[in-house]
Amino acid sequence: MKVKPKYKRILLKLSGEILGDRNYVFSEKSLSTLVKEIVEVYRMGVDIGIVIGGGNIVRGSKLVDQLHLDKVTADYTGMLSTVINGMVLQSMIEKKGINTRMMTAIEIKQIAEPYIRRKALSHLDKKRIVIFTGGTGNPFFTTDTAAVLRASEIGCEVLLKGTKVDGVFDLDPVKNKNAKMFKNINYSSVLIKELNVMDMTAISLSRENKLPIIVFNILKYGNLIEIVKGKKIGTLVS
């Protein structure tokens, strides 16, 4: 019996690190597993938008710290790295026979369509997966903020942030074994406690648009599928 998904339209936020491993910026195993789960969710009839980071290739903050580049230049290199990730992810999804479109907030016509909201909505209505790259197209804004912005623009019911940890914790779970995970937390508490969920701009924008965020471990296969079905996994920020 086919399970009816809880959500009709989602925005999946992925960090660039999810695509690779310690040996290389891209991992065939990691990508194949990720794509398999995305395709399964798509076949449930869910509209999918994806915003991807670029940290597996370039982190703008490191270029500022290590090479002393100006912040604007460093941020643009980060935006370009998201385009590379988007191209790879698009190709992997299309190998599964799923129509996919990549849109960029920075104009690179030979590679992808420029982001236009109406075109993005048209693609989703035609049951295409849409990958949004280039962040917001502006320096000083993270891909988390871009994810909230795109999710709000295209009418997503929820933003699913896939990470390497199980949810939102009161302390860094990697460094502290006694860290406690929140099942539910509100936007204001995240802002006041400065929890490492998303940057403050992204959280504020989510609160303003009443966009719920679910933070979960994307490395555990099946989590994404179960969340879309309605199972409570990870942390709900609302």
UniProtKB/TrEMBL annotation:
Gene Ontology CC terms, in alphabetical order: cytoplasm
Regulation: Inhibited by UTP.
EC number, UniProt record: 2.7.4.22
Pathway assignment: Pyrimidine metabolism; CTP biosynthesis via de novo pathway; UDP from UMP (UMPK route): step 1/1
Predominant cellular place of this UniProt entry's protein: cytoplasm
Catalytic activity entry: UMP + ATP = UDP + ADP
Binding site for UMP: G54, D75, T136, G137, N138, P139, F140, F141, T142, T143
UniProt keyword Lipoprotein, yes or no: no
Origin superkingdom: Bacteria
Enzyme class: transferase
Role of this protein: Catalyzes the reversible phosphorylation of UMP to UDP.
PANTHER family the record matches: URIDYLATE KINASE, URIDYLATE KINASE PUMPKIN, CHLOROPLASTIC
Record-given protein name: Uridylate kinase
Organism from which the protein derives: candidate division TA06 bacterium 34_109
